[in-house]
Design a protein that fits this description.
Helix content: 55-70%
Radius of gyration: 22 Å
Structural class: mainly alpha
Mean pLDDT: 86
Number of helices: 4
Low-confidence stretches: none
Order of helices and strands: HHHH
Largest sheet: none
Distance between the termini: 74 Å
Shape: rod-shaped
Number of domains: 1
């Protein structure tokens, strides 16, 4: 149907099929956070006391911060690689929130070592 002058609107472009990778990237980020946290906790319980040149009792939390930072970067990279704009913020938020929970549990597990 056209306007008063007989012009018609161009057809809407076909959207690309939604990628399933965006959904699967969320547990991948959680797994990355879990693996990194387990490695840090295992190293701390095995007696490692120097983290990135710092031997303070709470220096192990710097390593956990690096795990969380890597998880955030991986979340952004994986979601951008999915090339699926619909729901981007929700998927990134879910990825990061899950990684924060995983790292927080690891931080609690480190309390006996730090104190």
């Amino acid at each position: 149907m056209g306007d008063a002058h007989g012009h018609t609107a161009p057809p809407a472009p076909a959207s690309a099929p939604a990628s399933a990778w965006g959904r699967w990237a969320i547990p991948v980020v959680w797994a990355l956070a879990a693996v990194g946290s387990v490695l840090v906790v295992a190293a701390a319980y095995s007696g490692r006391r120097v983290w990135f040149g710092d031997d303070a009792p709470g220096a192990v939390y710097v390593a956990l911060g690096m795990v969380l930072a890597a998880s955030v970067i991986a979340s952004m990279a994986l979601q951008l690689a999915s090339r699926e704009p619909h729901g981007f913020v929700g998927r990134v938020s879910a990825s990061i929130a899950g990684a924060v929970v995983v790292v927080a549990v690891a931080a609690l597990a480190l309390l006996p070592v730090v104190l």
